[in-house]
Structure prediction request, 776 residues.
Amino acid sequence: MTRILAAVLLALTIGFTVWVNNALAETLRGSGDLGVVVERTAGAILIVDQSERAAIGRVTGLGDLSHASVVFSPDQRYAFVFGRDGGLSKVDLLKQTLVGRVLQSGNAIGGAISDDGRLVAVSNYEPGGVRVFDAETLDMVADIPTGSKTIGLVDAPGRQFVFTLWDHGETWIADLSKGTPEITKIEGIGENPYDALITADGRRYIAGLFGEDGLTALDLWQSPPAPRRILAGYGRGEAPLPVYKMPHLEGWALAGERFVLPAVGRHEVLWVDARSLEETGRTKTHGQPVFAVARPDGRQVWVNFAHPLNDTVQVIDTPSGEVIHSLKPGPAVLHMEFTPRGHEVWVSVRDAGRIDIYDTRSFEKLGEIAAETPSGIFFTARAHRTGL
Amino acid sequence: MTRILAAVLLALTIGFTVWVNNALAETLRGSGDLGVVVERTAGAILIVDQSERAAIGRVTGLGDLSHASVVFSPDQRYAFVFGRDGGLSKVDLLKQTLVGRVLQSGNAIGGAISDDGRLVAVSNYEPGGVRVFDAETLDMVADIPTGSKTIGLVDAPGRQFVFTLWDHGETWIADLSKGTPEITKIEGIGENPYDALITADGRRYIAGLFGEDGLTALDLWQSPPAPRRILAGYGRGEAPLPVYKMPHLEGWALAGERFVLPAVGRHEVLWVDARSLEETGRTKTHGQPVFAVARPDGRQVWVNFAHPLNDTVQVIDTPSGEVIHSLKPGPAVLHMEFTPRGHEVWVSVRDAGRIDIYDTRSFEKLGEIAAETPSGIFFTARAHRTGL
Prediction:
């Protein structure tokens, strides 16, 4: 009898211990103030908590995370990580585990999630085209070959994805609202579009051109949208730059009534009227800007810079267009992410192995988090925005 | 020995059972797709899950919930419910429990949460003024008497709250960034302001006037902001209406480059240029509009109506300004809430005891949820927006 009881007791104790461990790993918490930091050379992400200003976990085994980007499920529980090696990884932020991974191509550049959160799309260099996956299972549900490197993939309202063909100068709109993709092809985008963005309201899609000056804008409220050339002076200029020197267009930010964007190859940001898409002015900056990010209320724009001036961040006041503050977080500032309502900004300082956290009004440093070669910072509030 | 083992076994079994029960009650889930529905006459809220299109819990004991409104903590775990009776209740959406409640005045009208999520403010009719509470503990941290009924309380960037005095025609800006409130008072708002709104970028604060026609706009980027009268024809007109017939200004919505707002006492919505704040046109509607809500991408505006035409909802196409669809969900449509990226809209049909869920593109009805006299619907994505 004693032996039986002891055996039962042992079994129960083991079961109990498993429960306790699970309970600790799976702390009940809201997911609205979480985020991830890409640890570029480690193939890992740090899971961070904005309210605690701390890392709360780490998930490894995500492959090549150079140029990685991240989108989130509508419940803000799952992160989808797009690696350069064509890997699409699904991470559970609450359990802090890798729950799925597919190597969907040889070489990929970014992805997007549909407005209903059911579909995840990936843009591929090799073999080119776009592949669409079920967000729940990561099963492929659509394969859209384009015969070209595909860039500038974004989600648009109505279960649509929009992307552009580097080789053919075409933008395609894939409507998946009925299951099978219905494709609208728009020609005449220009020579070698290298990146694109969609505005936060999902209305305007703007592609940057590597092969010529200027950009091409589409009004997605038109049917079909007609390409319109804008900002004729914007681009590579007389002396062509390598593609990797062209600014990422995701840096376009709406500040008040103007977009602000990094100039190409110059120590300036440009101001562009949000309605006419015409240039209204420029602000001189410390270096060649990489990202010009507006605080969510648009009242300030924070700018980081290309090597070798990438230890510095400048803050521009939107109404006056003047630089009102400069700070030097440290070597290789790669990315900046605002808390959703803009009271703080998180800055990745790659070569210092650190995330710095600043108050956006007092510019006081509020905290820091150790990270291995941190690059992109992505907060879960992105789940509820178009084109992020 | 056997007895000791048996006692230990019993204790462990009880402990184990408690763990299992807690684990079931506290299902691990993301909080980004949750929401609450106010059950007006039951003093309760339903907790809903957008992805499941279902109610997942109910919390009672929240007092008088006529004219109730709700804000959310940044982690989207906690809902703060403002009742008409001055009650401020804090609900844990994950544990589905009431975790705190203060009866902070005799008669209140709405509240707001600071951009950092640390402070919750309530606007009071009786005794008037604004009280500010610690969001964690619900301890009062500031009492701002105004000597007037206080209306139009909103949060603004920088740990600020903005509100307006019905009796004195003043708007006050309370800056709590340094702990103690610093108050800026702006006179000359007009006669008997009855409600106000702040635009989504936190820049413009607009007050409606009961005592005269027109509205008053403040540009909060100015220091101090100077009141500016706009929309001279907008208001009570020659035949004064009772206050309860004046439209809620929170219904202002940005659709493309225009705000759309319910006309006062007429079967129309007004279109107002978002920059100049001048009227640019009107659209005739089925009844007197109560809420005119833009889909998050601004491409459509959904409108509900005052009694006795309140069984109907109309959908207006933004570019053309034309009504493109009408539907009759049922008796007493009180509120509409879009999913954060606009693919669905949830509609409360009070007298049918139902929430209806529609696809915003096909207008197909996707589901319904039973609720007791449902009024306001609030999704947790509001946590990341200014002025909601």
